[in-house]
Amino acid sequence: MEEYKQNWEKAVVMLSNLVQRAAFESFILCLVPVKYDGNVFTLTTNSTIGKEFQAPRYLNRIEMTLSEVYNKQIKVNILLEEEYENMSSRTDLAVQDSQKTESNFYDKYVFDTFVYGANSQLAYVSAKKVAEEPGQDYNPLFMWGGVGLGKTHLMYAIYNYIKKHHPEKKILYCTSEEFLNEFIASIGKGAGYNNNSKEVTSNSKFRSKYRDVDVLLIDDVQFFSGKESTQTELFHTFNTLTGIGKQVVISSDQPPQKLEFIEKRLSSRFSQGLIVDISLPDFETRSAILNKKAELLGLDVPDEVITFIAENISTNIRELEGALTRVAAFSKLKAEPISLSLSEQALKDIINKPIKQEITTPFIQEIVANHFNITVEDIRGKKRPANIAYARQVAMYLSCKHTDDTLVRVGKEYFGGRDHSTVHYATKVISKDIAEKEGTREMILELESKIKG
Ligand code: ADP
Ligand code: MG
Question: Is pTM, for the whole model, over 0.70?
């Protein structure tokens, strides 16, 4: 392998710690090193989105990292594959076919790879409708739901669908962060206060970029919270676009009315179209998603493994995907087929299912005995030294409080056949102590935290 490619591999490892996982997987890992001329390092991507949005964002970090690897200042150039191919006469055949065929992450964000269940059906159907007939019905379309549940996936699905089926339409995807940053930058470039409305206005380049489109997709609008002038700009962008029948799609982690610090007029504008939510998928949907992912990755995953993962991971789909990837990586590493035991091993750190200790009187006796440095036999038996008698009362009190055992049973079965009145008396003594003595209170709290695990 050429040296510059090895250096890129080193840089990728370093970048994995500097770039958020999602962006790392979607963007950095898909970059292909094609050329290094001693100063400029050229990388290509096959995704327009990667080139347009992610490249500017991560360029700096990539340059810094490569400069570190080379121990000198390196400039980085990120090009679309076509751009690179057109530019160079291709004397450098460095574009590796193997890497070229690797499909881009974002290209996988299409409707066909989105598995919907009751939790996301409405979001799926409305996103599809919007993609088929932008600007017609649901305008704006507002999709909300927790992290990792498929909002960005659906946004890109709309993007990819329109690119393919309505190539004449101008479509723009941006995160609220990008909108915000560009807006701020545009103010710096000569825009100012609009005398009539006393609002900060952006410059015309920014305006035309966002207002001269047929479809505008804005991801994660919750980040607009508190950014007043940017919200105002968004509001106007919104009115302009929807006013002339252009489609706007928005995603957020909250429903519009719950978006704190978002101006009322903006959130009510959000509400004028269709609001759909994506909630957590149920077990069947999780299994279906895993099966689909396995199929897409060309993995042979037994049903019991699908069930194992789907049962144990219910937080979100990103985690579900992560678990499957981990199992696959483990199987590759060990050169073993994917099996239940291999999956259990691979996921043991992720699935922390502590076996909850059932709270029983013997268990409490054990904890109390340990605390007082005596044996369980001492607690159960007839010895009367003060410390043992006291520990016994503590254990009785805790058993009555934390188990369903009756006073009768506690005394008879667990404390050497004692009468229920003895148990009752013990609970009274300890309750009184707790009320009066801080030391006892603290001790009981400590024991209780051990009992509850
Ligand atoms: P969000 O934007 O809501 O945080 P993403 O759209 O980034 O979530 O989804 C996280 C990951 O889970 C992505 O890789 C996406 O492809 C996948 N995913 C989410 N929902 C689904 C689904 N219903 N079917 C298949 N994959 C999904
Ligand atoms: Mg997202």
Answer: no
Cα 105 to middle of ligand 2, angstroms: 14
How far apart are the CA of 35 and the centre of ligand 2, in A? 32
- Ligand 1 pocket member 286 (CB < 6 A): no
Can you read off the two tokens belonging to residue 110? 């299409």
Q: 3-class SS at 300?
A: coil
Distance 22 CA to ligand 2 centre (A): 9
Distance between CA atoms of 43 and 24, rounded to whole angstroms?
Answer: 15
Please report the atom of ligand 1 found closest to the CA of residue 114.
24
Ligand 1 pocket mutation pick from 25, 103, 153 by most atoms within 8 angstroms of CB = 153
Distance CA 108, CA 246 (A): 26
pLDDT per residue, tens digit, the chain (453 aa), is 788 988 898 888 788 777 777 788 888 888 999 999 888 999 998 887 788 878 888 898 899 889 888 888 889 999 988 888 777 543 333 333 333 332 343 678 999 999 999 999 999 999 999 999 999 989 999 999 998 999 999 999 999 999 999 999 999 998 888 888 888 888 766 544 454 444 555 678 888 889 889 999 999 998 887 788 888 888 889 889 998 999 999 999 989 888 877 888 888 888 889 999 999 999 999 999 999 999 988 999 999 999 999 999 988 898 898 889 888 878 887 889 999 999 998 888 777 655 567 889 999 999 999 999 999 999 999 888 888 999 999 999 999 888 888 888 889 999 999 998 999 999 899 999 988 888 999 999 999 988 887
CB of 117 closer than 6 angstroms to any ligand 1 atom: no
| DSSP annotation string for 98-152 | HHHHSPPTGGG-SGGG----TTTHHHHHHHHHHHHSTTTSSSSEEEEE-TTSSHH
